[in-house]
Write a structure and sequence with these properties.
The structure is a homotetramer. Chain A is of the alpha/beta class. Helices cover 30% and strands 23% of the residues of chain A. The two termini of chain A are 13 Å apart.
């Protein structure tokens, strides 16, 4: 029995990746797509400036795109994936939840709301039950689950492994982020050729707060943020896909390079279709992971780490994940699988 | 009265910048150039694959290039600029010093030797007098002065300003370095298009040790390294020139964004021809400095800073300098001017 | 006595170059700037996302930007430079001409109109007198003069030299055009990193028609198009500035590589401030001219040529010019100087 | 029954693609690899700086690499793929042929030799029987078959389709070639970032002669070159893979856009494992094919065409192929399959 799914914001950079992931998905069946008012009524082929380097899946190209309102989505859709600009998301996602839809959202609005679970299934799947608090409080038949920002997702699995074994106290992270993270029109060529931009609006704050929520503890009623101190510095560079990050992790317990690598290499995926067998790939070559060579580890759902060095207070390392797969579309799909597994649909 | 100068390694990326700087220099006159054995005897035009976006200076193109030995440099040369691979530098620089030449070197060999001054004139000009210790100890008529690594130079002026006002305790720095820092053939196009490389061999160690020597104190006999803890993470990206760095500076004294900016903005250049009027340009726009737009601040001899944020233990900011000008050729020329001013020629 | 000038579309990529050229200009004084409705009333610093790698000229940053209507431009402005989207240009340029302003326009609208001179001063300065026909016919006090498209300008000076000596019959040209030619937001980073786009809307047609008008003959009443057959193929690549073009020029008379090079090397600039001493620089190195190394020849107002080979029917070669200088802003300024010299202001 | 194959030059850019293609190949089994003297004796993992964005195939990483001489290749190897620098190829390929090996070579040496077949199986498979003339003449037990240069392969299938239907008279072609075509170290980052190079040594001559041999006729004794006039202009741009070409094809018979597209769309692959079902994919979008989006058409073995326009004497269009797959490694493998099918092993 397939789950009938809809995609809000289906024509954008993440939306196209969602379409690519849902088409062959063993549990999901694409039943509705929406985009901005100006695209409504067009076929997907007309509405989307398709930029993935594989063709539009058969059957999808001629599907009609609706407007982004509950009225344009059939009632028998069980699960909604949302990848909207945050302003639009803040406005329409509650409408969908009120109308009874369960929404797995990649949009940044509401991620830090107290009754909205922010989940990376391999890290904090238990937080999903915050949805019960949410339904009680908001009186929704539907539900709203969020995945974190792409740059946050990249570092959280390795940080979770370190935290479990050595207790994190301070994290410093510097990012080298790909242009696809800003959407198709987000970075112009004149801005980035022979250049780098040491600022991505709001990104540092997202990394600093979302990581503490993901590593926080849920007691059945609320999520207590992790007490670690996180400071981020975010940069845009001329790569297409794959966020690379330099991390300094200070720990309570003493940590060696070998112990840190072991803690990460041990992390397995979980029992969901999109979760990879090995979540974190540890590279021994000092110059890896690299965006172009390693962003497709585990079909873009793995996280690569390398370049470990001991520091006075902990360990430093590099991590990399595919920002529109593990960091966005794949993250939402994985959360959708979790919602299905846990009976929230 | 011009100082007659020679350039060792004149055909490389930094060598070409040296030629470009010396040609119009008010104090220096180019009298000799050397390169590898295979280039010796050729004209500079033949030997150098000239890649600067301005023509080879008149008069230089037809000068003959010698081999890199004291025998191939006229006796009346007063000052040698050296930009050799470190292995070659380690071998031949002492020969030149022994033969009586004063060498201002950009090569990385010997920078941390106890009797070799490592100098950025605006930061620690007083260290130059370590040369007297050096001459006493080694029995040289000549002398060997070093400038630091390009990635170190970029962050040291702003760090010196902070240290003077607030006392540094810990520094974390992540770099986004331009390909020219590796020389003309150092990074292939297949390595860097749509990619970044999170490793530059030995660079992190250089930043961690050289910065402590530059900010160390010289008591007339030896340099005591600064006690701060420095940890670096170095990345190569697809920019031509200009190293961009994200810095977290923890301080003993409390520091605000405004106080940090003020401390940096106050730093003036010093009384040497290549020292800019204002050493550090503070950008108010949060997305500056950027490599392509800001690497030529003060003709490539300034340092740009921006993106200040307060952290729990200090301040974070970004800095940028032109790696082959302020970070290499210009640094050596500035040190040559200092040697001249202080009577070491 | 300075000529007071205004700039329509002052905040765009070409507009910023116009500001950069007018500021130090010996004959012109900036008296007015306009932009879109949403920018009107702002200072230039606020309105323009300045992207030139030199600061906004002093005095200009705090000037107020007006809306693009004759009402927002003072009456005592003698000359208008226009760099508007063609749709806007088609609408407002006639308003300015009717109101008595003389307009030197880079906008593509109306270039092939029979009574509009299309001029590159070093090639067909005599066509400027078509303005008398224009004024008679349209009853304007003002006047409208156009420079051609950036990709056309790049090839026309060398083609004119060949045509003068050997009579052109057929031209095939393939272009590798820089992203700045599309304006600041014209090409997204996701479109061009690790990519090339073999299509620029309308560009091929512009090159094919405009080149024949520029090399056409003016008899005092009308311009007869040159009879040569021109076919263009236009590509966008990941360069910031500088259009590179591969040209096959078939000629009536026999032509050798040496004769072709000589014909081009002989072309001098003309007696206008922005015209370079030597218009065409002939490179002997087979791999030159290159965009990054050679786009600034003669301060961006020269044209580089190289790579000559004899073909069965003529000669093939490469040419390069800075597309926003010689190819746009500089072209308009040069035409403004011509209008001033010839007494049209 | 697998064919045991060896690869000469296995560590280079094309060599790595050969390994990638042979590993899962239904007919071939990798039995030997050679590289330069300095790599001999190392494992493949040690010897190759692997740069393909998929891991080294299992089993290959630990195989030992030999020197490039017949002595280092087992006797029971049936087929040799060669991708050597042309100087090396000219020296050692005859040694292998003399020793009885059949060599499918991508190296440029000897391609125009009268008794060496130059073959793209879908275009001129019949030329393979020139090998009988070769064996007679040279007294070899082995044999030497060549595939053309990557830039030639890209345009020849569409040209063959046009020639079959409309008879080609003149061809002008301008290329935008990827950096991988020059090998891993062939183009430095400093040469190509924000730049293009309008010259690739010898490339124009290869395209001009090889295309006439491929479209020439073989009468059982010799190949008569096609009489068309071909002139090429070759450029290197900042793409990783995929050569894009602008072609003007003048024809004897009249040709329309539709007829040209139909002639190309009709071309099917042939009965060999690596030949795609449809050889030429015709794009209707005017801005396609593009390197990044379309180089993987038919797993990199297809050719994309688009942008058709009628010209005075024929038609112009763009074509694209993956230069290290269809243009090099895949071309050699395909020729190996042909040799196997025709009984030459």
């Amino acid at each position: 029995m397939s789950v009938r799914v809809g995609v809000l914001g289906a024509t954008g950079a993440v939306g196209q990746r969602l379409i690519q992931l849902i088409d062959p998905h063993p549990e999901f069946e694409l039943a509705a797509m929406t985009a901005s008012e100006s695209s409504a009524g067009k076929t997907y082929r007309e509405a989307a400036k398709w930029r993935v380097d594989a063709p539009i899946p058969d059957g999808v190209a001629e599907m009609e795109v609706g407007a982004t309102t509950p009225d344009d989505v059939p009632d028998d859709v069980d699960l909604i994936f949302s990848s909207l600009p945050s302003g639009v998301g803040a406005e329409v996602e509650p409408d969908f939840c009120r109308a009874g839809y369960v929404v797995s959202s990649n949009s940044s609005n509401g991620r830090m709301d107290e009754d909205v679970p922010l989940v990376v299934p391999e890290v904090n799947a238990d937080h999903v039950d915050l949805l019960e608090v949410q339904r009680d409080g908001r009186g929704w038949d539907g539900a709203l689950l969020k995945n974190p920002n792409c740059s946050t997702i990249t570092m959280v699995p390795p940080l979770a492994a370190l935290d479990g074994a050595f207790d994190l106290t301070d994290v410093r992270v510097s990012t080298l982020q790909a242009v696809s993270g800003a959407g198709y029109d987000g970075v112009t060529s004149m801005e980035i050729i022979d250049n780098a931009i040491p600022h991505i609006g709001g990104e540092e704050q997202k990394m600093e707060s979302e990581s503490r929520k993901l590593l926080g503890s849920f007691d059945g009623a609320e999520v207590e943020l992790h007490g670690m101190d996180v400071a981020a510095s975010c940069n845009r560079i001329a790569t297409l896909d794959g966020h690379l990050e330099n991390v300094w992790a200070d720990t309570e317990e003493e940590v060696t390079v070998e112990a840190a690598e072991d803690a990460m290499a041990e992390v397995t995926g979980i029992d969901l279709p999109s979760s990879p067998e090995q979540l974190i790939k540890v590279f021994e070559e000092p110059d890896r992971p690299q965006p172009r060579l390693d962003r497709n580890v585990e079909d873009g759902m793995g996280v690569g780490v390398g370049g470990f060095r001991e520091t006075t207070d902990g360990v430093q390392f590099n991590c990399l994940a595919h920002n529109t797969m593990r960091g966005a579309a794949g993250a939402s799909v994985l959360n959708g699988e979790l919602l299905n597994q846990r009976g929230y649909l």
